[in-house]
Amino acid sequence: MSKDNIQKVVRLNPKNISAPVGKYSHVTIIPKNSDLYTFSGQIGTDINGNIPEPLNEQVHNTFTNIEQVLQSQHLNPDNVIKVNIWATEEIDWDFLYAEWENLFGESYPSMTVAYVKGLGLAELKIEIEIWASKQ
Q1: What are phi and psi of 101, to 5 degrees?
Q2: Per-residue pLDDT averaged across 128-134, rounded?
């Protein structure tokens, strides 16, 4: 595939490596001459800045915040090229993947996940950073 001919973000899983262990793509190709957007990590605050205690509520709010920050730049989930997830406790993957699919459908961006000892505030249990591109 020639990078010069790419008109939209392309997501691939090469056949010469094992399939992804989750709902992500191994490779994301960005169209030539695209604008690159980097976003601060989004956290589980609600519209009033409140941080709920349960992880799944924080996950839900985080995905809502991701959708809102994308809309603020006239972007949509198809523009997302990379997702980094940091969590301080075990993720309920069934719940997170339901939110993930609600946002991304089945066109999964590349993803990295790490469990960390702590985030910027003691109450935070998850932070998700996105990168996006738009031609």
Answers
A1: -70, -30
A2: 96
Which residues lie closer than 8 Å to 61 by C-beta, 6 or more apart? 43, 44, 45, 46, 52
Answer whether 71's CB lies under 8 Å from 44's CB: no
Of 44, 40, 42, give the one whose Cα is nearest residue 124: 44
d(CA 39, CA 37): 7
Q: Which of 51, 63, 49, 56 is nearest to 122 (CA)?
A: 51
Q: How far apart are CA 11 and CA 1, in angstroms?
A: 12
Query: Which residue would you say has higher pLDDT here, 104 or 29?
Result: 104
Residues with Cβ within 8 Å of residue 67, at least 6 apart in sequence: 77, 103
Stronger pLDDT, 31 or 117, i.e. the higher one:
117
Contact at 8 Å (CB) between 8 and 26?
no
Q: Identify the DSSP state of 6.
A: -
The predicted pLDDT at position 3 comes to: 52
- Per residue in 85-110, pLDDT (tens digit) is 999 999 999 999 999 999 999 889 99
User: What is the pTM for the complete model shown?
Assistant: 0.88
